[in-house]
Amino acid sequence: MNFIAIDVETANADMASICQIGIAKYVDGKLVEEWSSLINPGDYFSPINVGIHGISETDVIGAPTIPEIGIILGSFLNNAICVCHTHFDRVAIGRALNKYSLEEYDSVWLDSAKVARRTWEDCRWRGYGLADVCKKIGYEFKHHDALEDAKAAGMVLLAAIETTGLDIESWVGRVNKPIDPTKKSYHSARNVEGNHDGELYGEVLVFTGALEIPRREAVELAAKIGCTVNSGVNKKTSLLVVGDQDISRLAGSEKSSKHRKAELLISEGQNIRIIKESDFKELVTHSQKLVDE
User: Fold this and answer.
1) Which CATH architecture has domain 3-174?
2) In sequence order, what are the beta bridge partners of 240?
3) pLDDT tens over the chain, length 293 residues
4) What is the rounded CA–CA span in Å between residue 236 and residue 185?
5) Whole-prediction pTM value?
6) Which of 72, 131, 161, 167 is the most exposed place for a label (fewest CB within 10 A)?
7) CATH superfamily name and code, 204-292
């Protein structure tokens, strides 16, 4: 029952552009310590991201950089079970550390979204977002504040432990097993609905811009980690992957029609995450590591 819950917010579509980190420490299932800080990402702030979390470039003036809080992060994350809701936060931490040539921490990561999918039947294939699960368990929080989201992820894990009777060590092993052993597994890249047990099952993904990897290979990788891949952005889209060159051109001011449509839908309240291709490939790499483990 001892673990760390962590969440990050980013300044733009680059997952390394962390602008806030929140950490909640639990001992014997009790919240014993909270830590949160704004972070200067040394990068531009996308209006879309600012609209989600409310943090702007002005807010992080004088805030520490990732290297400047490295010791603090290590005191929490090293030799700890680290909980985050979906592994976007885990990858963002890794990308930020890599950006500054810092070593990753010695942590065991546990995805509370995967825990929720294996605890409550109505969360298996949809409705396992942090807000949805917290509504289910009766926990109220301020979404898109890093500390609030971190504590919420911790509460999801504790609720799952209470519901199932599995302890945290058991959950570390359980999340890497199929959700439903009787459900047909993914075998073909043509299965655009994706791998039911994939890390990102339920995400509806669209690619845009010039990609380094062939588009067909990108679709296959996305399907393997659970994404449904569509050709166009619509009201079902939840993830837009943009070519690195496109995302960096003029700090993202020159955008494809898909990118502009995604931002319009975000401004209307749709929950779409925009990331660059290299971050997508890192998500795939982390997913494969979990399978291998």
Assistant:
1) 2-Layer Sandwich (3.30)
2) 206, 274
3) 899 999 999 999 999 999 999 999 999 999 999 999 999 999 999 999 999 999 999 999 999 999 999 999 999 999 999 999 998 999 999 999 999 999 999 999 999 999 999 999 999 988 999 999 999 999 999 999 999 999 999 999 999 999 999 999 999 999 988 887 666 544 443 446 788 888 888 899 999 988 889 988 999 999 999 999 998 999 999 999 998 876 655 454 578 889 999 999 999 999 999 999 999 999 998 776 655 55
4) 23
5) 0.83
6) 167
7) BRCT domain (3.40.50.10190)
